[in-house]
């Protein structure tokens, strides 16, 4: 195969690839025309600031996510419940085993709402039965929570 034929095939393959990626260029023609168009191109990046927004006063916000390693693969989900100051009120994590990415994401929402409901039911049950005590501990005696919150 001649060098001219190889150059034509490479140019054709590159133009197919570039046309599939950048429809606005519409590459047709020879190597030099393609090179000039590519060299003259400018890259434009659109950016968008994405931030977490606090809920309204006296409201809570539950943020959840689920993912897996591979699809299907080992799946898990987690979430955090925060108040209007952005302070964490509760968090959870759950391992699903082998699942799909979509299943993990869908289950993260139901797991989050179930966890909140379960915790609230336990608190209400304790309050109704009167089986609770409120005690003060000095910080030095409560180092387990300090380690967990760091």
UniProtKB/TrEMBL annotation:
Transmembrane segments: none annotated. InterPro entries: RNase_H-like (IPR053151), RNase_H-like_dom_plant (IPR044730), RNaseH-like_sf (IPR012337), RNaseH_domain (IPR002156), RNaseH_sf (IPR036397). Coiled coil: none annotated. Residues 56-150 form the RNase H type-1 domain. It comes from the Eukaryota. This is RNase H type-1 domain-containing protein.
